[in-house]
């Protein structure tokens, strides 16, 4: 099925690499006009150029989602240029792979600022534009780590669990405006950040938790994001959709 997001204006954060880039590419392929945002301006421009070469429609912005000034400016530009917003996908995160004893307060605060406050700020400024459009869909990328525990990832798991509850709050508060909000909870996905720490021991552990016998791809997550962002999921809100190949049940 093609053009499932035809003529929709969508914002994708963390679009410079990994899952965010995969979602941005799929949204464009499905007919959306994609507003790509990332703290890494060079990376997000490269993804935008790739979308353009493939015939997609997009624009790129440099933005730090932990900065209210940056987020407000991003959505102000969306309002000026497009006058409405139909979908938002947030993907930026930062985490220290440490337990609570070894996590500094600065590391904890940085993780919360990017991984949890970022989705909050983007939602805050997206809601008025979605209301102008007559409704919309917010899709926050959380993690299977929001639901089950990993070793040495205290800040990440706490932030991602917060993202799931944030989605439920938004779903309840803005249903009357036609705005839905859902979380996607991926398992292990082959991204640059995954490859950076993929030791042989860690890979064995990750594979033991993955029933498909392979790592997921950004496109696996993007398939769920397309469904949740589009009209097919009109009766779906407040959920945490697992895209984890069984990690949460093994």
Q: How is this structure best described in words?
A:
By secondary structure, this protein is α/β, with parallel strands linked by helices. It has one domain (9-242): 3-Layer(aba) Sandwich (Rossmann fold), CATH 3.40.50.720. It has helices at residues 18-29, 41-53, 68-82, 105-132, 154-173, 192-196, 200-208, 218-229; strands at 9-13, 33-38, 57-62, 87-90, 136-141, 179-186, 240-243. Strands 3-2-1-4-5-6-7 form a seven-stranded parallel sheet, sandwiched between helices. The mean pLDDT is 97.
Supply database-style keywords.
single chain, 250 residues, alpha/beta, Rossmann fold, seven-stranded parallel β-sheet, 7 strands, 16% strand, globular
At a glance:
The chain is an alpha/beta fold and 250 residues long. It is 46% helix and 16% strand.
Largest sheet: 7 strands, parallel
Provide the CATH architecture: 3-Layer(aba) Sandwich
Name the CATH class: Alpha Beta
Q: Can you write the helix and strand succession as a string?
A: EHEHEHEHEHEHHHE
Give the overall form: globular
| Poorly predicted tracts of residues | none
Total helical segments: 8
Tell me how many strands there are. Answer: 7
Cα separation of the termini:
32 Å
Rg (CA only): 17 Å
Average pLDDT figure: 97
Q: What class, by secondary structure content?
A: alpha/beta
Total domain modules: 1
Helix coverage percent: 40-55%
At the fold tier of CATH, the topology name is Rossmann fold
CATH superfamily: NAD(P)-binding Rossmann-like Domain
How do the strands line up in the largest sheet?
3-2-1-4-5-6-7
Strand content: 15-25%
